[in-house]
Design brief:
The protein is of the alpha+beta class. The chain is 31% helix and 27% strand. The N and C termini lie close together (11 Å).
Length: 103
């Protein structure tokens, strides 16, 4: 579900941006303030087993208690999950729950 929301949001932003460039009258929207407000909630996730890193992906912090959302395929076969935060600090994490969207 999170992957679908993220993809839909990205498609909407790309579509909206293309419309803005196609019209000559309105100036481009400056999203830098929005970026600055949310960049600290984005995390980098590395997964693997005790011998090697097997994959990586991104996610975002859902709650200050430490809950992070990412796509199920990023963590589904991981024995070890390492999360790196915006300030380059990191910690080991565990998968609490996982759900795959049914097509």
């Amino acid at each position: 579900m999170f992957a679908r929301i993220t993809v839909a949001l990205l498609v909407h932003l790309i579509w909206h941006s293309a419309l803005l460039h196609a019209q000559s009258s309105p100036p481009p929207i400056d999203l830098s303030e929005n970026y600055q407000q949310v960049v600290a909630s984005v995390v980098y996730i590395e997964v693997g087993n005790p011998l090697e890193r097997t994959g990586s992906g991104s996610g975002f912090i859902l709650h200050a208690d430490g809950y992070i959302a990412t796509a199920a395929h990023v963590v589904e076969h991981a024995d070890i999950v390492r999360v790196t935060f915006h300030d380059e600090t990191f910690c080991q994490a565990k998968v609490v729950t996982m759900s795959r969207a049914q097509d």
